[in-house]
Amino acid sequence: MAVGGLQAVPDALIFAYAENLIDEEEFALLYDHNRSKPLFPYWKFYEFNLDTWSDVECETELQFKKKDLASLKQSL
To answer: 14-45: per-residue pLDDT in tens?
Structure first.
C-alpha cells in the first residue's frame, strides 16, 4: 500500500474491502468519490493544429511567428 500521494486513499479502500472492513456498496461509493477527476476537459475542444492558424493568429496567441518555430524548437 502506498504511504501517501494520490494513490493512498484508493489503496486504503481496496485494503479495507479485502479485509471485510467495508462492504461492497461502501467500497463502490467511496472509491467512486475519491477517484481522480480530469483537470481539463480536453474532449470538449478541437485538436490543436498549428497548420490551420494564420501567421497573425500565431503571433497574437503564442507570441511567436510560424516561421520562427524551427529556431524555437532548437532553442528549447
So the answer is: 999 999 999 999 999 998 888 777 677 778 88
pTM over 0.85: no
| Segments making up each domain of the chain, as ranges | 1-39, 46-74
Q: What is the DSSP letter of 29?
A: H
Please list, residue by residue across 19-43, b when 16 or more beta carbons sit within 10 angstroms of its beta carbon and e when fewer do: eeebeeeebeebeeeeeeeeeeeee
Give the residue among 32, 34, 55 at the shortest CA–CA distance from 69. Answer: 55
Instruction: Report the alpha-carbon distance of residue 12 to residue 26 in Å, rounded.
Output: 13
